[in-house]
Amino acid sequence: MFARPGRAAPSAGPPPKRDPRQLRRLLAYARPYRGLFVLGLLATLLSSGLGLVFPALFGRLIDASFLRLGAQNTGPLDRTVLALLGVFALSALFGAAQSYLLARVGAAVVADLRRAVFSHLLTLSPRFFGDHRTGDLTSRLGTDVGTVSTVVGTSLAQAAAQTITLIGSVTLLVLTSARLSLLTLVLIPLVIGTAITIGRRIGRASRAVQDAVAGASANAEEAISGVRVVQSFTAEQVEEGRYGVGVQAAFAGALKRAGLQALMSGSMSFLSFGSLALVLWYGGRLVMAGEITPGSLVTFLFYAFQVGGTVAGLSGVYNQFQEALGASGRIFELLDERSDLPEPAHPMPLTRAEGRVTFEDVSFHYAAGKEQAGILRDISLDVPAGQIVALVGPSGAGKSTLVSLIPRFWDVSAGRILLDGQDVRDYAKRDLRAQIGLVPQETLLFSGTVAENILYGRSEASRAAIEAAAVAANAHTFITALPQGYDTAVGERGVKLSGGQRQRIAIARAILKDPRVLILDEATSALDSESESLVQTALERLMVGRTTFVIAHRLSTVQHADRIVVLEGGEIVQEGTHSELLARGGLYRDLYELQFRAQAQEARVAP
């Protein structure tokens, strides 16, 4: 109902796979911290072992108090209390150590896993990001990674500790009273079965909530990043509705989960206390018959509570494992994703390119492997180093697509592109892209300072180099007039600066990078006349000595290019200088005369 035109409404997609082998992959991230993990596990086991001691001591305390009524010697009672206090103190000490050590491991694994996922995302191609929403990816980085951290942090240790506690408690139950143990062990399967059955339903409900929250987050991400468009179309209510659908789905899922959790809590409470009442009833009869002492009954009850507690704890750990396996499935889907732009097995060295770019029978279409018309067809073009080539043509002709193939944002579907006579696919992508500078129409600045954004061109550059690049880009004057000069924060996506200012910072960034091949994709089309003049002057300085591809709708800005290539329908239809193309006629002259008449009309109606 609230889907944007041309875009499907978000869906949760297929449920993540829960492969137990993923647990081994998760544990691999804990390997660097195995020393801390082993210490935490040891502390957990010692704390659990001490937990098995105090019920026996408590039973002795009861017998020392009630079976020795009137006795003057309180030594046994005193020694038992001291032993209890010692057990409690040691148990608290080991419990605190366990909590800190395992939390330390969990936090470290989360940090490493987030870094690994984010680093891997940066290696994927634009095709991948075109198929996945940003909000969903950030949800996996945040929520899903946090979920799996419980496994490598506390869940494994809890599972080990509670297993030991369960085995020890059951053993001591039998040693304390075999007859009472039979009654207790009959009740345990009922408790376990109930916990597992309801726990599985809680796990499914939790995953549904996670998916709904991820969908709502993706909608919010899009609306917030495009808030100017939302507000300009007064579409606030539409976006509120879209976000509200996701929130309502999460709310409904949370209510279902809360109902199941309430059912779990009530069922376990009834079963636990009902079992306790039965054990007390039967144990009381055994005490009255003189078959066990009151202290033994109390000891038995403590062990019974431990059995029940560990069963409930193990069911909770089981649910945590299920949630973590589901979340890890989503994470490992990303980590297993492979770029469709493979690196060469033996990359050719590339330190400083000359800048010759050659297109040999290049064809391209976006949906690889599907039957559809190509975006580009049989493009052949040889651009010598240092030449300025303008690409013109109607919208959709394939101009931006053509230049995006040079830095391998996409790979050709047929043919090849050469840099200095070598196929660009033979170079490491990092080395290739280091030779290419891009100044797009919509400049993206990051939410740092002006200096940090210029440094994106070469992170090790000095402050003097930054300022020199800004001077060359006609940006130094306005930068020094900012409140903190080069240290002024530009805001998210550079929102605190004008379009012309952002564009000049982008040019300074490209100047600092000093690329051999330069791509200017509509770099001045969205600017006013004054800003365009400043930017155009900066661009002319930037183009000197570089192989440059200029895409521009305003043909007046490309008249002085060494060569103009005219594209239509993904094919080269004309090629030559400005004067040659005008004299020859055809599409270029038609476009030029159309723009000339439009400009003349604007001049006549201007006040």
UniProtKB/TrEMBL annotation:
Coiled coil: none annotated. The chain crosses the membrane at residues 36-59, 80-103, 180-198, 262-283, 295-318. Residues 357-594 form the ABC transporter domain. This is ATP-binding cassette, subfamily B, MsbA. The keyword ATP-binding applies. Gene3D superfamilies: ABC transporter type 1, transmembrane domain, P-loop containing nucleotide triphosphate hydrolases. InterPro entries: AAA+_ATPase (IPR003593), ABC1_TM_dom (IPR011527), ABC1_TM_sf (IPR036640), ABC_transporter-like_ATP-bd (IPR003439), ABC_transporter-like_CS (IPR017871), P-loop_NTPase (IPR027417), Type_1_exporter (IPR039421). The keyword Amino-acid biosynthesis does not apply. It is a multi-pass membrane protein. Residues 38-323 form the ABC transmembrane type-1 domain. One of its GO terms (molecular function) is ATP binding. It comes from the Bacteria. One of its GO terms (cellular component) is plasma membrane. GO terms for biological process: oligopeptide export from mitochondrion. Residues 1-20 are annotated as: Disordered. Its main location: membrane. It is found in: Cell membrane.
